[in-house]
Amino acid sequence: xxxxxxxPDALLRRVRAEEARERRGxxxxxxxxxxxxxxxxxxxxxxxxxxTDGLDVAVGVVETHGRAETERLLQGLEIIPRHPIxxxxxxxEEFDLDAALARHPALLLVDELAHTNAPGSRHAKRWQDVEExxxxxxxxxxxxxxxHFESLNDVVAQITGVTVRETVxxxxxxxxxxxxxxxxxxxxxxxxLREGKVYVPEQAGRAIERFxxxxxxxxxRELALRRTAERVDAQMRGYMAEQGIRETWATGERLLVCIGxxxxxxxLVRATxxxxxxxxxxxxxxxxxxxxxxxxxxxxxxxILRAMELAEQLGGRPVTLSAQSAAEEILAFARLHNITRIxxxxxxxxxxxxxxxxxxxxxxxRGSGGIGVLAITGAEDEEGPGPTPTPGPRGSVPSEYASAAxxxxxxxxxxxxxxxTGVPVLPIDAxxxxxxxxxxxxxxxxxxxxxxxxxxxxxxxxxxxVHPFYTFSVSDVRYVLTFGVMLVVAxxxxxxxxxxxxxxxxxxxxxxxxxxxxGLSRELAxxxxxxxxxxxxxxxxxxxxxxxxAALLPGEAGGVAVVGSPPYPFDERERAVAQWSFDHxxxxxxxxxxxxxxxxxxxxxxxxxxxxxxxxxxxxxxAEFRDPAxxxxxxxxxxxxxxxxxxxxxxERSRExxxxxxxxxxxxxxxxxxxxxxxxxxASIEGAASTLLQESEPAPAARRDLAATIVQESHRMGxxxxxxxxxxxxEAGALQVQKEWQLLSDVVGVALLRxxxxxxxxxxxxxFPPDLPLVPMDEILLEQVFVNLLENAxxxxxxxxxxxxxxxxxxxxxxxxxxxxxxxxPPGEEETIFRKFHRGGxxxxxxxxxxxxxxxxxxxxxxxxWAENRPEGGAIFRLALPISGTPPTLVAEEPVPNRQDPEAGxxxxxxxxxx
Amino acid sequence: MERPAPLILLIxxxxxxxxxxxxxxxxxxxxxxxxxxxxxxLAQAAxxxxxxxxxxxxxxxxxxxxxxxxxREWSPTPIIVLSARGREEDxxxxxxxxADDYLTKPFGVDELLARIRVALRHAAMPxxxxxxxxxxxxxxxxxxAARRVWRGDEEIHLTPTEYKLLTTLVRHAxxxxxxxxxxxxxxxxxxxxxxxxxxxxxxxxxxxxxxxxARPRLLLTEPGVGYRxxxx
Lengths: 915, 232
Hints:
The complex is a heterodimer of chains A (915) and B (232).
Chain A: H1 8-23, E1 27-32, H2 39-52, E2 57-61, H3 68-74, E3 78-79, E4 83-87, E5 90-94, H4 97-103, E6 107-110, H5 126-135, E7 139-145, H6 153-160, H7 170-174, E8 178-182, H8 186-194, H9 206-211, H10 214-242, E9 254-258, H11 265-279, E10 282-289, H12 298-313, E11 317-322, H13 326-336, E12 341-345, H14 351-357, H15 360-367, E13 372-376, H16 398-420, H17 427-444, H18 447-465, H19 478-526, H20 530-545, E14 550-554, E15 560-562, H21 572-584, E16 588-589, E17 601-607, E18 610-617, H22 628-677, H23 679-693, H24 700-731, E19 740-742, H25 744-754, E20 764-767, E21 775-777, H26 779-796, E22 803-810, E23 813-820, H27 850-860, E24 864-869, E25 875-882
Parallel strand pairs in A: 1-7, 1-8, 2-3, 2-6, 6-7, 9-10, 9-12, 10-11, 12-13, 20-22
Antiparallel strand pairs in A: 4-5, 14-15, 14-18, 16-17, 17-18, 19-21, 22-23, 23-25, 24-25
Helix pairs in contact in A: 2-3, 11-12, 13-15, 16-17, 16-18, 17-18, 17-19, 18-19, 19-20, 19-22, 20-22, 23-24, 24-27, 25-26, 26-27
Chain B: E1 7-11, H1 15-27, E2 31-35, H2 38-48, E3 52-56, H3 64-74, E4 79-84, H4 88-96, E5 101-105, H5 109-124, E6 134-137, E7 140-143, E8 148-151, E9 154-156, H6 160-171, E10 176-178, H7 179-186, H8 195-209, E11 219-222, E12 226-229
Parallel strand pairs in B: 1-2, 1-3, 3-4, 4-5
Antiparallel strand pairs in B: 6-7, 7-8, 8-9, 10-12, 11-12
Helix pairs in contact in B: 6-8
């Protein structure tokens, strides 16, 4: 492996991180080895110095614990008032995040990063508040003690015997831009403690005493120093990487820790994290769900979940895989992700069980090839990442035991009936019957009930059919073997049944998951707009989880709003949680640590690193989606939905950019055309008018001629402007079609009148059948179409050639035509003539918009327009207009003259052709 | 008795347009009063009592439609609305509000003078007086007293509705009538929105009256607005 060139991915990541950093506020952490070292004091001093430099400093929260020196430092600094929160009748004062965000100082002091917020606050932890402040671009000073580092939690507990509950993910501290170690020697610290200068919570009592023992303080100080040193090291490394300095250490390490159902999985995760930090490696926490996972107890599942969550908090990447064989899947994943080391817990299982069931460690070592496999000890019994094969009675209910026992009773009854008829029952026959019963019970139930069946069977067999009868004593020792066989058969079959059932169950679950995803993806692919996408997603959530979710989409100003009516009480508070989730692209609300007081869980719909919407799930139980399988399915569904929404956005954008390119082309062509087509008539008008204005007046005939030129050219310009305006309207999609039921002949009549002058010299024939139905259309727009077609026909054909206009009716539409006997269209150009700025060869005037406009208008009517060459010569333009909707009724006129009219007698004309 | 030349009030904010109309109308022996704004126009209409008002719909200070409505409240003076192409709804509304006719910009002098003549003629007829008993235009002759219709020498037979439609147009000859106005007159107020009636009957009427029904010369369609019977 060569490292001469910086890895492009790493470079990209660095650039991205830098970009994010520029927008993010800077975080400075004052780190101490233990309480009392003076972190808050140092922080305040530094902040005061900054303020003297003219920086806008505000105090978000600082705990002085009543110490006068500290309080003195606070004086003169702006303090953001705390926010009172009622909790179980106690009034708590909490840091006011919203006020701080609104105040937006350049530098904000937030003491005690590891603090847990009072219930009802937005975030469960103060470090989450800080993250949000940083994201908002506010610089932060904060303080933290070494024992609050998540990854050092167990180490500190080992050293001091005090378990610290308030922890901060290492990733938060690693992202800090600066860490200042506030260091005092243990002696000085103890001195301060004696002087009462260290804040000691009263309830802590003896624990605190133990905590501040000198040995502990030394150990904690060492931890803090080492942490800081590691960081300096990391900074140097980062510097070297940035400067392209050739790396001299084995980088590219990637670790994988196998997570199984064990209480020590968390310990394993922490150990891996420390190892990863030392070698600066990326690491994964992998759990493989096998069919045997079905048999895990709730506590074991909880262990796995907790370990995975911990891994995520510590900066690892939790991955849950699903497979039949854990070892194979882990190795496949490891190879795919260039894992260099696999870490797993050492098993303390008995050797015979390993021989019987195989050991995951063995399987991993055998298949690992170049990957290192490391087995480390946990405090307790540790199992591999696969599920514990501990057979649990999970899934067997009392009724199953009863049924199993009942099955075992059947042979007894049969045997006794046979015996009552006087036929002796041989022990070997009875044994066979009992064995059959055990087999039946084992095949139907899991191992527990199977064992019960075999025990009942053995007891009954002994009692009823082994000499001496009706006692449990056994005369012949070889029956013990029979008993043993029955028991083993029950165990083996019960195990098999259980396994098959688990496999069937997990297969069914998987199948359900797959079909849910497949169903959704199919629906999403068909969805044409955002509402259809969301409707499909909500349907899928309802089908899969039986939950009525709400979908939210961002509005114009980026604020999310519920689409449709929300299926659960949705107030402004809920919306705010959804908004937070959208803005921060993180899950929030019920079941999370952010705003857990909300009624629903809000998941952002993401794609390409952007939030495109939010899904709100009203959970009955906050832990509803902690199960990894459910969670993953939910996330897959959300992911698919996000991708589908994004696809629509992208499609729209590409359409927009296409339109833009086209618009650009249009502009260029328009400018060049305008300069010609507008200037020519303008030149004529100006020329004619200025001649008229000359002092020597032209002869009357010439004057008329000049005036006629002006009028004619003005008409030409008028048409040009009208066409341009129409074009713009068609282009902008602003064409408002006001359809009314019209007679085509009426519209054509107007068009013929308007083109009277151009058509002079062309005999025009019309053919409109009297029974031509009414067509819904916009007469002004359609008139424009016919004017364009007639003008074209007149322009492109020799004088004297006929022009035909007419229409025929077809089922559901009316097809009109304008035909000529001119030279026809150049072959192959039947379609291109409809494009913008396409000019017919040698055409005089016009910038080639007429046909484009006509097509725009006809299309807006839902119709089609096309051109053909006529077999006998000439071109024909046809346009088909759909007869959509119900034609209006027309009450036919009484074919009798109005007799009530007193004068009607003088007018006795009967209509020869009434409607 | 020598009557003074008709007085025309022009309410128009475009100076070029006013200049053109001043020249054109002056050359044709009309007197002209000009107003640049709606306010001024209304004042002039009250003060000068013009014979015809030319009203531009795109005025700077007020909506031309409002001006038309206000004028109609107290003045029977014919109003000819001037507006650009593509604003057909405005024209229809102005006509339904009581304007007498319209001109689409740009227009020629001939068209303008024709409209003014029609307006003056209709205004000269005191309301309620019967029109000329015989109407003639091109080959068409309508004898309103005898209720008979001829094209050239040939008598034409019309249905009652066709006849009613034709006489309505004859009574307003030269003026545009909106679909709504025709529907109300011929079919009654209930039919005001059933414009297809007018279209169908107009087509029938053309079949009987026009020499070439596909290229009508008498019964003219005003697209998007209504119909007009040519009278000269």
